[in-house]
Amino acid sequence: MKNKKIIAGIFSLFTITAMNAQSKAHLDKKKPIEERITLLMKEMTLEEKVGQMNQYNGFWDVTGPAPKGGNAELKYEHLRKGWVGSMLTVRGVKEVRAVQKIAVEETRLGIPLIIGFDVIHGYKTLSPIPLAEAASWDMEAIKKSAQIAADEASASGINWTFGPNMDISRDARWGRVMEGAGEDPYLGSKVAVARVKGFQGDLKNNNNIAACAKHFAAYGFAEAGLDYNTVDISNSTLYNTVLPPFKAASEAGVRTMMNSFNILNGVPATGSSFLQRDILKGKWNFNGFVISDWASVREMITHGFAKDGAEAALKAVEAGSDMDMESHIYVAELAKLVKDKKVDIALVDDAVRRILRVKFELGLFDDPYKYCDEKREKAIIGNKSNNDGVLDMAKKSIVLLKNEGNLLPLKKTGQKIALIGALANDKTSPLGSWRIASDDNTAVSVLEGMQQYKGNQLTFEKGADLTVGATTFTAELVFNTTDTSGFEAAKKVASSADVVVMVLGEHGFQSGEGRSRTNLDLPGVQQQLLEEIYKVNKNIVLVLNNGRPLALPWAAEHIPTIVEAWHLGTQTGNAVAQVLYGDYNPSGKLPMSFPRNVGQCPIYYNHFSTGRPVDSDKNVFWSHYSDVEKTPLFAFGHGLSYTTFGYKNLKIDKVNPVKGETIKVSVEVTNTGNVDGKEVVQLYIRDISASLSRPVKELKGFELVSLKKGETKTISFSLTDAELGFYNNNGAYVVEPGKFKIFVGSSSTEVLEGELELK
Fold this sequence. Notes:
Layout: H1 2-23, H2 33-43, H3 46-52, E1 54-57, H4 70-81, E2 86-88, H5 93-105, E3 114-117, H6 130-134, H7 139-155, E4 160-161, H8 185-200, E5 212-216, H9 235-242, H10 244-251, E6 256-259, E7 263-264, E8 267-268, H11 273-283, E9 289-291, H12 296-302, H13 309-319, E10 324-325, H14 329-339, H15 345-361, H16 374-380, H17 384-397, E11 399-403, E12 416-420, H18 446-451, E13 457-461, H19 487-495, E14 499-505, H20 526-536, E15 540-545, H21 553-558, E16 561-564, H22 572-580, E17 645-652, E18 663-671, E19 677-687, E20 698-707, E21 712-719, H23 721-724, E22 726-727, E23 733-734, E24 738-745, E25 751-758
Parallel strand pairs: 1-2, 1-10, 2-3, 3-4, 5-6, 6-9, 12-13, 12-14, 14-15, 15-16
Antiparallel strand pairs: 7-8, 11-16, 17-18, 18-21, 19-20, 19-24, 22-23, 24-25
């Protein structure tokens, strides 16, 4: 009997040892990732698989004692059971190590967490908002900006960002235009690829993080620019305008995508098989994973698309939504749905495989604490190199909209300069929206930047407060609409100045998620202040701080010089000052049209002709407004320099090409001014006649070129089927014969014109 017990014990020990060895087989680095995933999944229970599809928010203190009662305690319990695949908003090496330690060392299988965070335009050291970065048209600079953001975020323990946002939007009322690249799918696609590559690198190093293309899809077309609102667009718009940046990101290897809050064809994107399975995972063969937006699985109930949590879980997983962000729906409902044969386990397995694949690619199984180096955290965050990098990006993002009389650049000596506006001395607002890891009061103000130049007499007056009360990420802003008590002091210094620099615009929290506007003017008493200063001194340089295009017809008519400086991040003041004083010659171009008034919205350059585009019969029955021009105030692609550029000798090497041939388009560009500068040379096409109406212009190429004063360069572009075709209403890419107009110039409106006919 004793021998039998000994034998049984030995057999039991052998069995446990064998099981442990098997459960660790997925840690063998020599095995291919797909094999490692298969080995791990064989060891997982259904509940553990569903747990990988569950993401929890981590604002609670994860390094303190486990909470008792409430949602946080439930999350702790689930974390220790291995029922959490990812956490978001846990940041800092100490915090990340604490949750990763629970996942790796206290759960049955030790599957590491992927740690997500909204790294939208930097982590602690902030670059300009993404819309501003797009104004640089400089893909290497944008890529570098994303690398800086990834470097700092990864040093703080984060390995996944919920960016880039690649929502094309034509409506400045929508606050989230600040997160994207503007109105054009070609430019948007280039920016998307640059940011994905900047964030991700090759994913092997501890300074790379996984990127997330969002929001899939059509979120930027919310009706009336109202956030979270309904979307109702044509297939032509979907395939030709909305989807191209996402497709480009997928081809660039983006590892995750986030679905959007809106409905499309009456179906919430989170529950759309058409978007997630047919297009993304089907036609595009995307092998990363899809995460819902915050609680968007649960919100399908609110949409009226699901009757309860169980149906929401069923519809979301069937549609291809792999991970549930903060709905608590998958972890509550999905295992039971599988056991009840209402959800095929193959759908769960597919989602889990995708999630584990990204974790393996990030190297988390090989070193779960690769992002938890406190020495690196201290060395990287906020260092000089990163500040130098975001300063470079900020200067490249500035757009000179107008410069009549050459008020800029400012002289460096002998001038009396009045600096006016509350935003000129603001060290928080210029950081912009979506900067939850940064600290208030850390931006270089415009006042501080201009004070670095000692040769002039600089006097600052606020003029008026912009806001009253607290300004926080979660609160509605309250603007000063009555207090003009500071006007007289501002007028006094302006009246005796040679030049007045006025910094006006939006507060940093006036754009972003949930920040829709029905007016696009200067909020509060700023317009009144601008007009009062103009009465005493017309030599005004207006510096705009804003997160979206504004409607400023009075300023455009009266103010001689206007500088679009956006929300430029940590180094705002230094960037603005260096541009104002001419130490950096601005080269930015608008990525989004500026309307004359809000009634024009949505307004965009690549519109369709319509049947009555011009007044050929001199009567009222044509496409126009009766009270304002239908053209934008400042057009897409517009942007000036302290020098001038001349375009001539547009050449097209094949005017009768056949399908499949490459067409070379060239133009001579000359710096005709007195200083060196950079110019964004832009190529547009128009398909004159096609099976679907095509836009009046479509951007199909651009090049940022540096030219010394007096220098001429020949700039060449290649047109292929990839540029000449379009998607039909079934999503098929077609290239059709016919005539094409070719435009090359400095903006969407200032162009030379040629023509070819595709045979």
